[in-house]
Structure formats: C-alpha cells, structure tokens
Amino acid sequence: MITIKNDNNIEMKNIIHTNLRKNNREKCEWLKNNTSADINVSDIKNCNFLVYDNDKLIGGAIGFIQYNWYFLDLLYIDEEYRGQDIGTNLIKQIEAFAKKENLTGVRMETWDFQSRGFYEKNGYAVYAEIKNCPPGTIDYFLKKEI
Questions:
Q1: Backbone angles phi, psi at 22, to 5 degrees
Q2: Distance of CA 95 to the CA centre of its chain
Q3: Under a CB-based contact definition with an 8 Å cutoff, are residues 141 and 125 in contact?
C-alpha cells in the first residue's frame, strides 16, 4: 500500500535529495561535469557585494552562483542614497563579475511594488510571473544573459 506522509525528517529529505541529484546528473551533461555527486558538497558559492559610505553600510547585493548563473537574491540601497546611480553601478559590478567568471547570466525576482522598472532599464527581461504571491501582488522573474 502506498501512503503519503507529511514528514520533516532530515535523513529522509537527504535520501530524496541524493536520489534526485543522481537522476539529474545522469540526464544533464552539464550537471554531470560541473557538480559533485556528494550531497555534502555544496555547489552554491555565495557572492555578495556591499556598499559603504565611508564606514557606514548603505546597501548591497546578496547572491550566489549556481548552475553557472548568478542568482541575485537581495538588492537594497538605503532610501536616502537612492537616485544616485548606486544601484545601477552595483548591477554593473555584478554583471562584470559574472562576465569575468564566464557565467551564463544574472537572474532575480522582484515584486510589482519593488524594482521591475529598474531592472528592465538595466537590460533585464521578465521571463515569468506569478500572480497573488503574496496575495494581491505579482512576483516577477527577470534575467539577463551575459
């Protein structure tokens, strides 16, 4: 008899993760050649860019590299510093880094009340959206190939 359980057991999660990883590596040549079969070895490289005014942290970009892409997880500039091209310069630095590292591109997501226009102005294109995530909001997924 097949049953489905809601189970947060870490050991069982690791078994599923290992099995999926093995399956993916068998079917994707890039994964096979560029990732480890060992679940304990991380293929994610954190890569953050912080912005300071003298010694004061005023913003930054938090991201990581995975699957030969830079995933921009968070980008924030203190409100008093906005409109001074700091965000644009930050994006350009991320793109220069991605190019130097021979990454495929940069991708991120943003909500409709955040920065879609900013990213589009910098050459990013929406490739997907989810409505009502959170309710009443649109979550946009953007990318730019390098």
A1: -60, -45
A2: 13
A3: no
**Of the segments 8-12, 16-20, 45-49, 141-145, which one has the largest average pLDDT value?**
141-145
Q: Is the pTM of this model over 0.85?
A: no
Altogether, the residues listed in the chain come to a count of 146
Q: E strand or H helix at 60, and its extent? A: strand 56-66
Tokens 């480890």 correspond to 36
User: Which residues are registered as beta bridge partners of 106?
Assistant: 70, 144
- Distance (Å) of CA 45 to CA 101, 106, 125: 12, 14, 24
pLDDT at 42: 57
pLDDT digits (tens, 9 = 90+) for 17-45: 788 888 889 999 998 898 877 755 456 78
